[in-house]
Amino acid sequence: MNLDAIFHPDSVAIIGASRTPGKIGYILTNNMLNSGFKGNIYPVNPGADEILGLKCYPSVLDIPNDVDLSVITIPSASVLQAAEECGKKGVKALVVISAGFKETGHEGSVLEQQLVEIGKRYGMRIQGPNCLGLVNTLTPLNLSFAVDMPRRGKIGFISQSGALGTAVLDWVIKENIGFHSFISLGNKADLDEIDFLEAMSEDDEVTVILLYLESIEEGRRFLEASTRIVKKKPIVILKGGTSSAGARAAGSHTGALVGSFLAYQTAFNKAGVILANSIEELFDYGLVFTEQPLPKGEGIALITNAGGPGILATDLSEKLGVKISSISSEVQGILRKNLPPASATGNPIDVLGDAKADRYAFALKEVVKDDGVNAIIVLLTPQAMTESLETAKNIVEMKSALNQKPILAVFMGGKTVEEATSYLMNNGVPCFDFPEKAIQAISAMYRYTRFLKLPVFSLKRFDDVNSTRVKTVINAARMDNRVVLLSTEAADLVEAYGIPVPQNKLAVNTDEAVEYAEKLGYPVVLRIVSPDILHKTDVGGVALNLNSSNDVRTAFDQMMTSVNKFVPHARIYGVMVYHMIPRGREMIIGMSKDLQFGPLLMFGLGGIYVNFLKDVSFRLAPLTDNEAGEMMEDTKAYTLLKGIRGEDPSDVSALKDMILRVSQLVIDFPEIVEMDINPVVVYKAEEGAYALDVKITLSK
Amino acid sequence: MNLDAIFHPDSVAIIGASRTPGKIGYILTNNMLNSGFKGNIYPVNPGADEILGLKCYPSVLDIPNDVDLSVITIPSASVLQAAEECGKKGVKALVVISAGFKETGHEGSVLEQQLVEIGKRYGMRIQGPNCLGLVNTLTPLNLSFAVDMPRRGKIGFISQSGALGTAVLDWVIKENIGFHSFISLGNKADLDEIDFLEAMSEDDEVTVILLYLESIEEGRRFLEASTRIVKKKPIVILKGGTSSAGARAAGSHTGALVGSFLAYQTAFNKAGVILANSIEELFDYGLVFTEQPLPKGEGIALITNAGGPGILATDLSEKLGVKISSISSEVQGILRKNLPPASATGNPIDVLGDAKADRYAFALKEVVKDDGVNAIIVLLTPQAMTESLETAKNIVEMKSALNQKPILAVFMGGKTVEEATSYLMNNGVPCFDFPEKAIQAISAMYRYTRFLKLPVFSLKRFDDVNSTRVKTVINAARMDNRVVLLSTEAADLVEAYGIPVPQNKLAVNTDEAVEYAEKLGYPVVLRIVSPDILHKTDVGGVALNLNSSNDVRTAFDQMMTSVNKFVPHARIYGVMVYHMIPRGREMIIGMSKDLQFGPLLMFGLGGIYVNFLKDVSFRLAPLTDNEAGEMMEDTKAYTLLKGIRGEDPSDVSALKDMILRVSQLVIDFPEIVEMDINPVVVYKAEEGAYALDVKITLSK
Asked: N or C: which end of chain A has fewer CB within 10 A?
């Protein structure tokens, strides 16, 4: 995606420029002037001749030269005309700051649509409307409300909340974090997060892309793009609106459709996107990704001058699955020989409270030689003898000797360590004020590294499926004006995709029931077939363990009486007769279609347990063989399936097969919007699994 | 506990004072001189006449006046003599900075013990050794390595890591957080965290006590003290060494015994102590507790000028169980009438990006009137029109009108909001840089408030217990040199405490087994009785569902053959015969004794599920009726016990009774160090519960 007109314009028109300090049109003009922008800036305002020393034009059409980019900050009612003029002028892209569009209701939505159409007509891409502009330290340009620009760096930041972006710009300057660019998405009428992701992915000056997002409209497109981009550079996302209450707040804020957080989470995991839990985490991650190389292998070393911080770092490492290396006996020997006797040479390596810069440097120099150490965190507390600035300088000096092993610093304290912290930050060593943050950050690096190392798995496709049979079932339900399939239909449908179901027949009267029972072989089960009855057991709609024609006859009649009594108006299609299969472990395989991301598959412990233990895991279809395996391993029940304490292991390969077939089914038939196989009855290894009860709902 | 000599000494001797800048003896003398200490400072050093303008004495005995407190910072080999001299001089307390004691091994431990004995002989309390001193802004005094003192405040901070304390002192100055005092515990040879907790609890100038702890040696004493103190003021703890790796690090650091984190967590919960997860959280909590009143009821309001931060705050609120109030229609009406139409008057209340200070003030003034709003968080991002300092001033001005409702601020950004943030912090309004921190902090306030509101429950004591019978069983095992009770003994023992067990008999041969089976009534179960067989099923040691004398005879003989084959050297005490009880839900009740905190009870889903679902909860004995109830409610299985989807509810009151009886049993008999009732079979409401299999281990 070429968004050069936005990232690197040669000339910028500011439509709505103003001479009045405090006004947005003033702030933008002033910020552009102070940004070091090398091209031409054209203020546009019919009421002024000159703004901040720049010649001002009544309309963009009056500008004598070409204009690459127009930023528009006039009342929404006038935006269409301005956009039209930009189109005529040959402007390549628009940044629409003005509010008053989709976020205000129907009228605004119509206006927004018209704006998009003008853009399309003239081939102009549009950022916004209702956005807070952009910053680019490379070009450089500053079309934001933030007066100062962060120092030049390689972090790209895309935010769906403009104000949060502005606050962050202000904050990163204080924290000394380098930025490549900031993009405020606004209403995403034309350009959305995916377009900017693509643009930043193609820009070699960006090494990590951070996003604050409240919604993703085109989930599948996002998934495809992020999966591709993540292989080149890390993407870190903070997702606003994870709670149901938060989702409401997001809804009223942007008018966007906010999908459930679970689907987002599953999508991010699938793509290898790193999820941040707070704004600080987002930037801490950005910082380490942009300043440090990725660790080549597991195992970090902690070098500290105090026990407490080392302990806190170790605690969190364990919690987050970051391995603390065992220091080799060779390196430990050298440390023991050269450090004071009270030092700890294990990991954390405690160089003691009276360690000066040279002792830190010595420990660092030796520890880095250990092949089992793939990343280093240096922790420092200001004590009587501590030389924080010297220590910082030593760390920076050693960077080249680190052999591409990432190094992070934790300098705790306030004024005493301020200079040292700045020195580290200015010289490419991320420095944190508390050990927990460094561990969080290194853990994010490991999450990304591990993802990159995963082999590439291909999608599993089964050929032994019968699509025609599925279509026939679906058409029959459509003809009958139903979206919920009958249980016999549902069983038929999944069987067409190679999923084993107990042999069954739909009987419409007692005689048929007996006839089928005789054919299928005793014992049999009868189950009522009705689109209006959800909980069949509760209304006497299930009869188990019937061993003779007499049993079947009695059960059939009783079932009809009972169902008629409990749900007199239910449409009864008959009774499903099936051979009763032996007891096994009860699992569940389900699918619910997410509006943004499509079919979300679920696997877990079934039967009554699914409701209260919620021991389930999720993946987005379509699945690779590997994902189906992971899905099972994610559940606690997997321990049970593998066989615990003398019990036989279950047929996990039959389960995996079933998961993969469901995945293929819901991809092939997008009209299936919801399905549940509960229970899936699974037997001992090699003895298979059956879909005992299948519920399928079609789209309207 | 009177520790006035430490907190408020009239005179301080510095044993090991030095004229050499950089030396600890110099730093301490210099810091005391700069601290504003009003009493006398006596440097003690035989090699100097004068230090930093103060007359120096060769020994504490040479000081002409009384000395309240001596701080000792000379090599450990000379500490005992100095302490002895202090004793003779009538010094009231010692702060021993010197290292080289217990933390260095056996020799150091002996030295430390001798130091404690000197203290006892002379009635001198000792802080340390191996500590980094103390700071008190009230007295004021500074016997720490930190050059500057924090501003005066009401936070008391006790740290088991001295260096972490020093770093924090430095940091709180930067963050503008007020402090009452800082205590570095060191090796806790005499005074420990409980002593300082007590002292701070009695000091009205302390409103909140923060602790960084790596170990608690006297768990029960801690529990008793903290339970009492929490009713007066909040205690917040950051526990280092929560991981197994962290515990190792703690072990090598302080030589202290680190208990399992689970026991700590359970103890903190029982006492109402707030647990912090990071250093920053510890101080964020300290800040809000010390600066703001506690909320009177649930429900907070968020006032913001940007959607994003409001969404992030809402997300975390939901996650942490902080209720977002519904703003009353009356207040919403007023807001709607006076705020711009695009504002959101629900909660979060969005005053929009162009809000100046007056609009914030208006919203705040109205929202505070809402009875459903019991705490307020004001969020601000720096945008074009934002007046951050004015807004800060308005918030501070409104404090008195807030009617004791706590208010927190979140001013995001850097330089732009720096002045406003300082203004708020200096005027009693905690101000955070990110919304997540404010929500964490208010959530801690709510945790504390809810705890304070809990009614006082008294311990449950049963009278219908037979202690003599328990003693007889225990003695029999002792006589037999066993610490693991036989299953028949264990059943007997719990039955003596009123816990129902199936009627059973120990049969030593086939004939006895048949005889007992006839008496107990069929069906019966046989179970091997041997202290050497843990997993009885695996070796053929259990036979279920025996319906006749023939069945019993065959089963007995087969069992002996099988057991002899699998575990030929096992001591066989016979076979337990019991009437087979019907199937029910299988739960577990267990107890494991924690070294520091005593009997830790467990309740949860039993049978095979306990191993992989780990759906269990913990409480420290003895339990109140209420705690036993909570313990059950904490598990997911509780939903199952209450009866789901047409299933009958289980007899939860029988379960509760059993939990309470186990609690009483393990308190009455501290020699029981471990027990498991698994499964506890529970039936429908009013139908009771049985301890089906009981394992009990005694102390050696």
From this structure: C
